[in-house]
From TrEMBL:
Its cofactor is Zn(2+). SUPFAM superfamilies: GroES-like, NAD(P)-binding Rossmann-fold domains. Keywords: Metal-binding, Oxidoreductase, Zinc. Belongs to the zinc-containing alcohol dehydrogenase family. It comes from the Bacteria. The keyword Chloroplast does not apply. This is Alcohol dehydrogenase catalytic domain-containing protein. Residues 1-20 are annotated as: Disordered.
Amino acid sequence: MRALVYGGPGRRSWTEAPDPTVGDPTDALLRIDTVTICGTDLHILGGDVPEVRPGRILGHEAVGTVLEVGSAVTSVRPGDRVLASCISACGRCRYCREARYGQCRSGGGWVLGHLLDGVQAELARIPFADLSLYPLPDEVTNEQAVVLADIMPTSYEVGALNGHVAPGDTVAIVGAGPIGLAAIRTVRLFSPLRIVVVESAAPRRRAAEEFGADVVLAPDNGVRDRIEALTDGLGADVVLEAVGRPATFELCAELVRPGGRLANIGVHGEPATLHLEQLWIKDVAFTTGLVDTYSIPTLLSMVAAGRLDTSGLITHRFALDDIMTAYDVFADPAGSGALKVALNRA
């Protein structure tokens, strides 16, 4: 088969790789039909995730067709069209029993495209298939489903739920990349009073408006003063960090009101300063998190029922064999206008 193989920081290739096989009774073999590229893949290529070793097949977001299952798999069977979660879950360890699948201690968690070969390939082995694959209803398309593998549950769980967004809240989202835009959609499920988005790139500010943000600001637009003016001088009830940079994290800490919540979603590759000398007295709750994807069934049901709109996130489409070009386009959002890309089997 052909696969996107990591060759070390800054190096990737679409090349021949050994076909995966069902190795454990809980495995499934998947033919990849639709796959996408994540910002985390760019972090890996930037050298921010040293656990990923050269030779690893990247990718952790895909829709595919089950070709074969191990003897212990009962929830899917050959021929099923399924969503492959970015998180694998053994279902037995302490964390899985608490639905904290991202912290699985028995070979699960975020392993695809990280510690195990991933799904940016023609075929993929999916461990713990019963809890890691989700059969898809006919009314949900591959493109609608593939964004439920990671960015929608990430924005929902690590953003809206960790931030305890409630009706009437003012929510500030710093960053309008794919995660930030997905956060607009999932935050809106909780009826906030207003959503304020802070983004440096003009095309993404326009996208934030289209996705439903009420106020969209550039970072140099007196952001703190604008948010305080909207909130009687208090600041935002909930602030979501959706970039993963020290400057954006520190901006989030400035924007949250006393008694507010700061939920960090972004993947950080370098240290950020936590100004406890300013925050300790403000009763601010601060959360981090790796997505667990326990919400996929809920989100999938809402998409199928027309209650959650995932349209607009995928802006560019390619054949799977064109994945090298797709990476170039995805890595240059300022020039290409790309949010998410979809790659489809020919």
